[in-house]
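Please, structure for the following, as tokens.
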Amino acid sequence: MDLLLYCTTAFIAVFVLLTVLAVVMKLITQVFPEQLPGKDVAMIVAVASVVSTLYSGAVITKVEEVK
């Protein structure tokens, strides 16, 4: 009978833990929503810096993300 009690307790503990984690994940996604795709200024500056270092005198006219 003790084994059944241990298994039931463990099952309930895991269920409660997963429920708490789901709630925390939901709260995190509400506080920090997904950023909409757009131009990332830091990325554009980094690309411009690398291109100007590798190819001196080059001018960047357009930066696109290829998926």
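Residues 33 and 43 are 20 Å apart (CA to CA). The chain is about 65% helix and 0% strand.
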